[in-house]
Write a structure and sequence with these properties.
With 166 residues, the protein is of the alpha/beta class. The chain is 43% helix and 13% strand. The protein has a four-stranded parallel beta sheet, sandwiched between helices. Helix 1 crosses helix 6 and helix 2 crosses helix 6. Bound molecules: 4-nitrophenyl phosphate. 4-nitrophenyl phosphate binds next to loops.
Length: 166
């Protein structure tokens, strides 16, 4: 039987700081785990204000210091995303509320999760918006994402090993 992929969509407000970073962190973890053919990863924004833009240059610089290359191009979430992805993961409560408002049906609402649900370190209940912060805000985003993405990968590995044909 054909192996189905698990499809993840990371979402933040502008799709230029947090969700592109989550995409890059998760892609590296998935690649290192040898699961690149089982897990598909993308990111999007609640707004289209930055549509077509590369990730924020400050975010790219901080990510590059940890070896991540942010190569996504900003796009807004669309209705099709709720059908195409299995997990839609927002960064803060506002993202979650906005995603719920955009969800076309109840099945779609069930796909919406908050990034920090997967954190091992429970110090933060959301990934704070770094846009108006200094360097420490961007470093915090990366710290929180590295922790939460590792927790998310653990859950996906368990799911994939208990559903080999899924
Ligand atoms: P992000 O950060 O949601 O993590 O991409 C932001 C990017 C842009 C703005 C706010 C947050 N903005 O106000 O333009």
């Amino acid at each position: 039987m054909k192996e189905e992929k698990v499809r993840l969509l990371f979402v933040c407000l502008g799709n230029i700081c947090r969700s592109p970073s989550a995409e890059a962190v998760m892609k590296r973890l998935v690649k290192d785990a040898g699961l690149g053919d089982r897990i598909e990863i993308d990111s999007a924004g609640i707004t289209g204000y930055h549509e077509g833009d590369r990730a924020d240059s400050r975010m790219r610089a901080h990510a590059a210091r940890r070896g991540y290359k942010l190569d996504s191009v900003s796009r807004p979430v669309c209705t099709e995303d709720f059908f195409d992805f299995d997990l839609i993961i927002g960064m803060d409560n506002r993202n979650i509320d906005d995603l719920k408002r955009k969800a076309p049906d109840l099945e779609s609402v069930e796909k919406i999760h908050q990034m920090t649900e997967y954190s091992r370190n429970k110090l933060y209940d959301h990934v704070p918006d770094p846009y108006y912060s200094g360097a420490e805000g961007f470093e915090l985003v990366l710290d929180l994402l590295e922790d939460a993405c590792a927790g998310l990968l653990d859950e996906l590995v368990q799911f994939i090993s208990s559903n080999p044909d899924n």
